[in-house]
Amino acid sequence: MTAPTASPSGTLAADNTSAAGPGRVRPPRPARPAAGPGLRILSAALSILAALLLGFVADAGLVSDLRHARDRQVDYAGFRSALANGVAPVGRSTGGGRAPNPGEPVALLEIPALHLREVVREGTTADDLSRGPGHRRDTPLPGQSGVSVIMGRQATYGGPFRRLGELSTGDTLTLTTGQGKHTYRVIGPRRSGDPQPPAPAEGHGRLTLITADGTPFVPRGILRVDADLVSTAQPTPAPAVASGSLPDDEKPMASQQTVWLPLVLWGQALVLAAAALAWAHARWGRPHTWVVGVPLLGALGLMVADQAMLLLPNLL
What we know:
Strand content: 15-25%
CATH architecture of the domain at 61-258: Beta Barrel
Strand order of the largest sheet: 3-4-5-6-9-10-8-7
Structural class: alpha+beta
Order of helices and strands: EEHHEEHEEEEEEHH
Number of strands: 10
Largest sheet: 8 strands, mixed, barrel
């Protein structure tokens, strides 16, 4: 047996060959020190921050666009069926018309100059506008006399009105409702400080399209495009909401305050999941924790970001 040799520091070191030989047992490796409470809290906080940032970027840049494309197809199929069966809402009247329900498709908007075709829904909350343009409920439906208002997003959820400022005087657009197809001719765009066109004459109609103005995600005001109805105005029942009584969260650049409760609940779920994964990391190790943690935190981060998006201005 080979005798131990002295190391330069004076200590005895076992021969490597002998240590690895038959019958020899390697000395156990020293155990890694367990993560302390401070490290676990920091790990959980960083996991929450990463999930929120990734969820918000994914929701604003990709997921919201995919959702809008899906919702547009679903709403288009449903509205075509309602038109074919003669049950599309046209407003409550003595003739038996039906008032639209909040969130229900009410019109099909087509703007050839922008290559745009969108289903218009009833309501202008941030949630309503996440599915496409929305009809302001305290105004007449498109095609009727008076001033109809349709609002749409500039950048998020497909940004259906991102090119609205490219419309110029004389461009035409059409809206199809339960009362038929209606044609409008653009008067022109206007921004804050520009004069408002005179009100339409009795029995005539006008449409105002509204979105955010300025750089996407950094709005500097509101852009409006006015268009006069050049086809025959249809009978006009009273709007679903009286003028001046529209809820604040349906007005231009408003946020939806009703999302605070689901936002807090999803946020709590994200915090608990991050804390559980920080504990699991100390018990399971990194590979197993990543397999479970990445999908879980990603899904919860996306849900929190989806609710937080509704707190942004509804025209964004």
